[in-house]
Amino acid sequence: MGGLWSTMVLIILLLLLLLPLLRRRWFKFHGDNRMKKKTMMTSCRVPEGSWGWPFIGETLDFIASSRTSTPVTFMHQRKSMYGKVFRTHLLGKPVIVSTDPEINKVVLQNHGNIFIPSYPKSITELFGESSILRMNGALHKRVHASIGRFLKSPELKAQITTDIETSVKLSLDNWKNCDLVYIQDQTNQLTFEILVKVLMSLGPGDEMELFKKDYKEFIKGLICLPIKLPGTQLYNSLKAKERLQKMIRRIIEERLITYKTNDTTSNLAASSTTTAAAITTTASSDAIDVLLCNVDDRSDDDKCQPLDFVAGNIIEMMVPGEDSVPMVMTLAVKYLSDNPLALKQLVQENMDLKRQKANSGNSYAWTDYMSLTFTQNVITETLRLANIINAIWRQATQDVEINGYLIPKGWGVLASLTSIHMDEQNYENPNNFDPWRWEKKGIVASSNTFSPFGGGQRLCPGLEFSRLEISIFLHHLVTTYRWVAEKDEIVYFPTVKMKQKLPIRVIQDGSLIW
């Protein structure tokens, strides 16, 4: 028995000694040979970098960095060794990482559709083949443009401003009876109901609560093991999605019957297909109307039924809106709590608007909120510093040459937004919350060095709507309450969150002296 244990220990020691050699040889064979073949046919070169360990690459280092208070460490360390563009191996595939604004711009603009979205398997399983996140070509352009026009329309902003004001005031009114208010929870609840109303005209009630419950189960599967066995998270999330789709389908069918009754369409309720011409005779009241206008433009290969196409994409459109907007609200409260000077100036600007409205007797228009210059600077700085969307993942459909670099076909591309937002070459003292930086000459909130909403063909169509929603929340918060925030910290993995949900103690005070 002693001899057996000695042999096993010896084997383990030999494996440990050989592992670095095996690592080098594995990546020499699987990586360098592929790069050599590519570079022989072009003057461009694959960026320098490291493949990490066999099979897992540098995934563990990448995740470990994301769990710290400085998630850009992984990018900064490699950028210092290899430059702004480098290669690595993440999540089982070779990846080109770009922290260069110009290269990111090319990737995001994606002329010729040479880059396609790339997501973990659990996400592709949940979203399916007809997902708006996986669309490409003419259909994606049309759907994206249609949703963008709807969300940017003055008609929607005028209609929804009153709804947002009502929801915000109701939420804030409930805070006065609370010892502690958890901002992250409150903003999540607030923005969820507003988003559902915009997307599908569903108001508060039992149906909303049921929808919310199933949606929470659905999003748990976005980051999980891609196993669909009964009892697993992915299986439960897929079942939750089925229930959500069924609920949305019923709303769509009721909508189509209404169209038929109003003589604005024909045979829509009885048919499994729909036509854009029939819907466009009526102004779009929500995102369901917009998607119904684009159902017939899908490719012949798309086997998804028309109503399932609409229902599925309504669910997916909720993912960025439901998560990002409440976190920007939450983090704005945190950054303002930590910066009394910024909070004082924000209060003064918003109190001036409140007094102006009180004296004139006029109600608020959406343009009033968007004209609050310092408030917009606070939102912009929060977006830069918070980095809700830290990177954009793509995959090259062919060999691509950009600025002297070669990106081989099939490789992943990670356009890092966080690294650019936190680069000292782009922003002075990038770790500081400084809303005044946006008043300086040369700092532009729409430049290549500021991309909190992505960019190019897939620029978030709801960015203006999101700013309006956040502006209304901040205005009524700072003109209603004073508060003291409890100590809390930001967690960056798997998504940006507050560790303790940002608890605050609120004090209602008409004088609002800070």
Automatic annotation (TrEMBL):
InterPro entries in the record, alphabetically?
Cyt_P450, Cyt_P450_CS, Cyt_P450_E_grp-I, Cyt_P450_sf
Q: Where is it localised?
A: Membrane
SUPFAM superfamilies per the UniProt record, alphabetical: Cytochrome P450
Q: Tell me where it mainly resides.
A: membrane
Give the membrane topology, semicolon-separated if more than one: Single-pass membrane protein
Which parts form a coiled-coil structure per UniProt? none
Q: Which UniProt keywords apply?
A: Heme, Iron, Membrane, Metal-binding, Monooxygenase, Oxidoreductase, Transmembrane, Transmembrane helix
> Which cellular component, as a GO term, is one annotated location?
membrane
* Record's keyword annotation contains Transmembrane: yes
GO BP terms, alphabetized: brassinosteroid biosynthetic process; brassinosteroid homeostasis; leaf development; petal development; stamen development; sterol metabolic process
Give the family from UniProt. Belongs to the cytochrome P450 family.
The entry's protein name is: 3-epi-6-deoxocathasterone 23-monooxygenase CYP90C1 isoform X1
Species source reads Spinacia oleracea
Gene it is expressed from: LOC110798894
